[in-house]
Amino acid sequence: MPKFHDENLIVGVDTFDDAAVYRIDKDKAVILTIDFFTPVVDDPYAFGQIAAANSLSDVYAMGGRPVAAMNIVCFPTCLPVDILKEILKGGADKVAEAGAIVAGGHSVKDDEPKFGLSVMGMVHPGKITSNSGAKPGDMLVITKPLGIGILNTAIKADLTDESVIKKAVEIMSYLNKDACESMIKAGVNGCTDVTGFGFLGHAYEMAEASNVSLEIWSDYLPIIQESLGYAKMGIIPEGAYNNEGYLKGHISFSKSIRQEIRSIMYDPQTSGGLLISVPEENSEKLMEELKIRNKTDFNIIGKVKPKGEYTIEVI
Ligand code: CO
Ligand code: CO
């Protein structure tokens, strides 16, 4: 039997959190995370930046500070090595922006390129923002607009222009560092980042880990405007349907909520924002802190309730 428990492993595999956290002593814990994926954009440098921002995000979601990272590379021999150099440069620049260093890595030959990082971060053991910390009465805040998976699908289908691609890259490569700093300043109960399982998937995991239910105010969700149009046209990634399938029976929607909004809530996000559960008395402070530094759309989007019939109620 593999060993999954140790008194110093503060966050392990059982709560589906963003990263593992291991206590070193009473003031220090290390955060360990790994993430990698296939290119989401054509530009190799931008892909490197996005993959790094996505990998670093799990450290920010735990309320930590990235310290060192290792590259994980899969690359085909038939592609020019200059492409790989650009990917790695994008990744390294993003890691530097996070104030961390690339300490090494490993590469293997593969048919399709893949890139990501294993990141080590630091956090005070008493200040971890786990996904299991949400408490009834908390307000929910999201720090990036939703709909990036839909936008990427439209980009792949060649339905967009350069300005839309630029916007998508900007949102995906934007570090959750500013959002993390804001939540540390405000004082919050719990956090996770919104990635492949979509907004509702990650909200569901947070609710389950915290043993609460969530009420989501659909009119308040920040949404990438272009994505709304593509969602109406049915340009929706397969992952959104998979996420909907996994969550069947756990989510209730008010009848008035339009299909395209539901699709956006299930849409898998690449390097999405933080979903934060903040005590009501600190929520105004959090919004003020986000206004000071966060460069993507954010909003208060719902509240935490005692566990009810549905895990998530969207109104
Ligand atoms: Co995560
Ligand atoms: Co992750």
Give structural notes.
The chain is α+β, with helices and mostly antiparallel strands and 315 residues long. It folds into 2 domains: 9-123, PurM-like, N-terminal domain (60s Ribosomal Protein L30, Chain: A); 139-314, Phosphoribosyl-aminoimidazole Synthetase, Chain A, domain 2, CATH 3.90.650. Helices cover 37% and strands 25% of the residues. It is built from 10 helices and 13 strands. The chain has helices at residues 44-61, 81-97, 148-156, 162-173, 177-186, 198-210, 225-232, 238-246, 259-266, 280-293, and strands spanning 9-11, 20-23, 29-37, 65-75, 101-109, 114-123, 139-142, 190-193, 212-216, 251-253, 274-278, 299-306, 312-314. The chain has a 7-stranded mixed sheet with strand order 8-11-7-12-9-13-10, with helices on both faces. Strands 1-2-3-6-4-5 form a 6-stranded mixed sheet, with helices on one face. A hairpin with an 8-residue loop joins strand 1 and strand 2. Helix 5 runs antiparallel to helix 10 (280-293). The longest helix has 18 residues, at 44-61. The model has no long low-confidence stretch (mean pLDDT 96). Bound molecules: cobalt (II) ion (CO) (2 copies). One cobalt (II) ion binds at residues 18, 58, 61, 193, 195.
Keyphrases for this structure?
315 residues; alpha+beta; 60s Ribosomal Protein L30, Chain: A; Phosphoribosyl-aminoimidazole Synthetase, Chain A, domain 2; 2 domains; 13 strands; 25% strand; binds cobalt (II) ion
